[in-house]
Design brief:
InterPro entries: Anti-sigma_ant, STAS_dom, STAS_dom_sf
Order of helices and strands: EEHEHEHEH
Organism: Actinoallomurus oryzae
Protein name: Anti-sigma factor antagonist
CATH class: Alpha Beta
Number of domains: 1
Strand content: 25-35%
Pfam families: STAS
Number of strands: 5
Family: Belongs to the anti-sigma-factor antagonist family.
């Protein structure tokens, strides 16, 4: 049986000194390894503040949460701060019941995380 999994995309841009990484699609076992590696590359490049925009994440399972923990650990190792923005209610609930809401600053919207943001996404990190 063939299952057409929605791929996850990662778009990055910089706003007022913040590196914003917008994830869209599903965070599951088939997408998280690639996303984790691409986010790690951004952290390795010396970003000091990264906001991960989750507003376009349609699904998240345990592997998605594991990816966020791995990103947090990598960020800590590089002296980078990481915040989450715009998680949909089901993702916010997962963050809350797993205690990960205590590991990250979480903003309801990207606008709250990065005041003065623009709406354009640059597929430079894709």
């Amino acid at each position: 049986m063939y299952h057409d999994t929605i791929r996850a995309d990662l778009f990055g841009h910089s706003i007022r000194g913040h590196t914003v990484l917008a994830i869209s699609g599903e965070l599951d076992i088939s997408t998280t390894a690639g996303l984790r590696d691409r986010i790690a590359a951004v952290l390795e490049d010396g970003a000091k503040l990264v906001v991960i925009d989750l507003s376009r994440v349609s699904f998240c399972d345990a592997s998605g949460l594991r990816m966020l923990v791995a990103v947090r650990r990598k960020a800590d190792a590089y002296g980078c701060a990481v915040a989450l923005a715009g998680p949909r209610p089901h993702v916010r609930k997962l963050l809350r019941i797993t205690g990960l809401d205590q590991a990250f600053p979480i903003y309801s919207t990207l606008g709250q995380a990065v005041p003065g943001r623009v709406n354009a996404y640059d597929p430079a990190v894709a």
